[in-house]
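Hi,

Apologies if this is the wrong queue. I'm a grad student, and the batch job for Large ribosomal subunit protein bL32 from Bellilinea caldifistulae produced an output file that my downstream script rejects. I'm not sure whether the problem is my script or the file. Here is the sequence I used:
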Amino acid sequence: MVPLPKRKLSKGRRDRRRAHDALQNTNLVQCSQCGEMRLPHTVCPNCGYYQGREIISMEKAEKKK
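Support response: The file is valid. Your script probably expects a header line. Output copied below for reference.
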């Protein structure tokens, strides 16, 4: 037999337990092109490069703003 909970956990108790999951630090890496810190596996928001290739042209991005 598999043990099962005797009573249903309330939504508040469940959410209080899960609240700590979002408190972990985000892992940042240094951009190889400009040296700014960015999230891994994403295009650099500062220079627009990803893995040594220009993905977003920053001149076009500045004109749109």
